[in-house]
């Protein structure tokens, strides 16, 4: 968690921009963790780091780092202005291009904020209806929710089919039609999986965003 976002959590209710930083950081480490746990790249292409009180493996491949960095820059900007509703990590066969797994993260704005540079609000706020809103989420509560998702990602090897072929991955971002999209980005097929099985994962929420996770995978044809 960045120092700025962490400071906002300490002060009180987090701003939309501070929440955007937290969610983007989660995506960055979450994608890295999935790539490692699902064996998309060799183990030697990863190094361990400490995050959210957990040991998380992140890529040291410069081309993958660059790819993720460019995507996350746009994701953070869109999160800060409420113009993104979904991020998908698709794992595809290199040979057939078929999508084998589809990790989906649905994003909702749970609290509209004012100007981007608003000061963090107090611990409790009053809604327009006069009812007290929920108190600001503590850093500990947020960290525990995120930890639960990372533990599920690590445990995914126990319920997802073994990937025996070489794979690559794509990141799909579902942004509003009026979002400013980099010229290097292109429209993409949704990369859905036929006859997919789905497993819903844990969710987490800041004071401004809620992220719900699920993974879909190709059903073993021998079990159909």
Poorly predicted tracts of residues: 7-11, 113-128
User: Which value, in Å, is the CA radius of gyration?
Assistant: 18 Å
| Number of separate strands | 7
Q: What level of helicity do the residues show?
A: 25-40%
Largest sheet: 5 strands, antiparallel
Element-by-element helix/strand order: HHEEHEEHEEE
Helical segment count: 4
Explained architecture:
The protein has 224 residues and is an alpha+beta fold. It is built from 4 helices and 7 strands. It has helices at residues 3-11, 16-37, 62-80, 139-155; strands spanning 46-51, 54-59, 84-93, 99-109, 167-175, 196-205, 209-218. The strands form 2 sheets. It has a 5-stranded antiparallel beta sheet. Strands 1-2 form a two-stranded antiparallel sheet. A hairpin with a 3-residue loop joins strand 6 (196-205) and strand 7 (209-218). Helix 2 packs antiparallel against helix 3 and helix 2 (16-37) packs parallel to helix 4. The radius of gyration is 18 Å and the shape is globular. 30% of the residues are buried.
């Amino acid at each position: 968690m960045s120092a700025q976002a962490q400071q906002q959590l300490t002060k009180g209710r987090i701003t939309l921009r501070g929440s955007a930083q937290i969610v983007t950081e989660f995506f960055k480490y979450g994608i890295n963790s999935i790539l490692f746990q699902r064996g998309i790249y060799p183990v030697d292409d990863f190094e361990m780091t400490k995050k959210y009180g957990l040991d998380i493996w992140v890529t040291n491949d410069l081309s993958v780092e660059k790819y993720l960095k460019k995507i996350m820059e746009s994701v953070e900007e869109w999160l800060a202005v409420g113009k993104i509703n979904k991020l998908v990590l698709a794992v595809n066969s290199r040979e057939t291009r078929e999508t084998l797994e589809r990790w989906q993260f649905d994003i909702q704005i749970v609290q509209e904020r004012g100007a981007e540079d608003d000061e963090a609000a107090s611990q409790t706020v009053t809604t327009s209806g006069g009812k007290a809103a929920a108190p600001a989420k503590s850093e500990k509560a947020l960290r525990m929710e995120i930890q639960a998702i990372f533990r599920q990602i690590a445990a995914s090897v126990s319920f997802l089919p073994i990937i025996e072929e070489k794979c690559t991955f794509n990141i799909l971002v579902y942004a509003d039609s009026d979002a400013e999209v980099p010229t290097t980005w292109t429209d993409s097929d949704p990369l859905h999986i036929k006859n997919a099985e789905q497993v819903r994962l844990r969710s987490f929420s800041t004071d401004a965003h809620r992220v719900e996770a699920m993974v879909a995978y190709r059903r073993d044809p021998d079990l159909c």
